[in-house]
Amino acid sequence: MSKIIFFGNEQLAQGVKTKTPIFDALLSTEHEICALVLPAAHVRKPFEITKVAQAHNIPVHLVEKGRDLLPIIEQYHPDLGVLAAFGKLVPQDAIDAIPCGIINVHPSLLPKYRGTTPIETPLLNGDAETGVSVMRLAMTMDAGPILAQAKVPITAETTKQSLYDSLSALGAKLILDVLPGTLAKNAPETPQDESEATFTQKLSKDLSDLKFAEKAAQTLANEVRAYAGFPKSKAILLDIPCTITKAHVADSPLTELDQRCADGKYFIIDRLLPENSKEMDAKSFLNGHKK
User: Fold this and answer.
1) For the domain bounded by 205-289, which CATH number is listed?
2) What is the rounded distance in angstroms from the CA atom of residue 267 to the CA atom of residue 287?
3) pTM
């Protein structure tokens, strides 16, 4: 039996309901999770992983800075570190202090989509597929050698939450696949091709306004999926501030809510959340608010 220290809260995307499939998968093995480490900022928002750790009597440590990690590692003497959405740079001395290193679950097909929004970005770009990578942690962001990868399709019905669910569950499976070889220090590794690397951008509230006159309808429909939960996609409809939660593109409008966009196509509003109200479809909104 080996000792594993876990870094992160498994919130692989912003604005999703976070689950703990990777942590749960490790709990199902013969190995011991000796500690859970989270950035101190995460204490302001409780995560499911903290509850799971406490239910299994696993110590939870909150750290302010990367330099706080080494004393924790030295306290527990883990054989391996597993990281999923930690949100802080792990110093090289902390990585080196763990005999088998640290492996990281990243929800993209690295070297594509390094950075903080690898789930949102393929939705935003209208990609037909994405995936998850398990890599060995390195000091350069998301640049370590690949231990395992797997793909998932993206369809018109894929939401940010459903993509998060699929990728985190697949990441858990890949972690279990590479665990024996990683602990034995004989797992095959594939270096990333730096010439193929692409990078994602952070999301901010400034992105939430739907700019119908400036963007193509499909671009805005992609934003609705990518920005679900945060930063959200907003518009003023019938003088009421609304968050659009589902939309698609068509050549002509279906209701007076639908918006003609810069490319001449129509942004069709399927579902929305009016301010101070509950989520509803477009017909219900019109029935309740049309003057």
Assistant:
1) 3.10.25.10
2) 20
3) 0.93
